[in-house]
Design goal:
- The protein has 283 residues and is α/β, with parallel strands linked by helices.
- The chain contains eleven helices and ten strands.
- It has an eight-stranded parallel β-sheet with strand order 3-4-5-6-7-8-9-10. A two-stranded antiparallel ribbon has the order 1-2.
- The longest helix is centred in the N-terminal third of the chain and has 15 residues.
Length: 283
């Protein structure tokens, strides 16, 4: 495993395990236990995933010292305000059963996220949150945010995969010292990514799968990846990307796959924004 150093000096694994769309408590708990046993140390959850308690149980049972784990969770739109975030942080700590959270992110750039971030800055200063950041902040939104807040976000988790590469967004993140993290590093299975001819052909040179090439491509760009699977064999395969390096020619060939847009979400669609606001995760 390799690490990236965040702008506050904390080291974050370049590969982690995501638990999006694993709401069943027993399944999620076992998946996290399997992931940790497979070598993952970064676990990425969110209040909106409704599985923080399962993640917390796995962390407690896994036998790995707490300081060796990097636990990340996120603030949902419903709680995007100063007071809402203060309460949400405490709720996440309680559900996870932790004294601190390694990385706490604003899940969507919606609602009073500036007010929410003020609460996050306060929690960061007293040690309840070891690092803070954002998700889904496109370049203009991220620039405005970074010019407004007191503590620079450490991470911006956005959609990043070979078919939506967002190189200009990565350049802006680099300007502000923000580490990019990829959700959907497998494009949620779109574009035939697992059998894509370009990725498969490159993988053949190294004895790797198309999926492993897709992950390796992102980490070589300095992007943290959080692939998800509930199958331990697949978890182990996803972790097996640290014994080869893609060549400049490989990277250039993959660069040619970029479509320049997402086919998963559209944050510019008012209907999508309204839908996210309508999602309530508590009374």
């Amino acid at each position: 495993m390799e690490f990236v150093t965040l702008n506050n000096g904390i080291k974050m694994p370049l590969e982690g395990f995501g638990v999006f769309q694993v709401p069943d408590p027993a399944v999620c708990e076992q998946a996290v236990l399997d992931a940790i046993e497979s070598g993952y140390r970064l676990i990425d959850t969110a209040a909106a995933y409704m599985n923080e308690e399962a993640v917390g149980k796995a962390v407690k049972k896994c036998g790995v010292p707490r300081e060796e784990l990097f636990i990340a969770t996120k603030l949902w739109v419903q709680d995007a305000s100063y007071e809402g975030a203060k309460k949400a942080i405490e709720t996440s700590l309680e559900k996870l059963g932790l004294e601190y959270i390694d990385l706490y992110l604003i899940h969507q750039p919606m609602g009073d996220y500036i007010g929410a971030y003020r609460a996050m800055e306060e929690a960061y200063k007293v040690g309840g949150l070891k690092a803070i950041g954002v998700c889904n902040f496109y370049s203009e939104r991220l620039a405005d945010f970074c010019e407004t807040v007191d503590i620079m976000p450490a991470v911006n988790q956005v959609e990043l995969h070979p078919f939506f590469q967002q190189q200009k967004a990565l350049d802006i993140m680099k300007e502000y010292g923000v580490v990019p993290e990829a959700w959907g590093p497998f494009a949620e299975g779109k574009y035939g990514i697992f059998t894509h001819p370009v990725l498969s052909k490159i993988g053949e040179k190294y004895g790797k799968s198309a999926a492993q090439v897709a992950l390796r491509w992102n980490v070589q760009r300095g992007v943290v990846v959080i692939p998800k699977s509930v199958h331990k064999e697949r978890m182990e395969q996803n972790m097996d990307i640290w014994d080869f390096t893609l060549s400049d020619e490989d990277m250039a060939e993959i660069a040619g796959l970029d479509t320049g847009h997402s086919e998963i979400v559209n944050h510019y669609d008012p209907a999508f924004v309204r839908m996210l606001h309508s999602m309530k995760i508590h009374d």
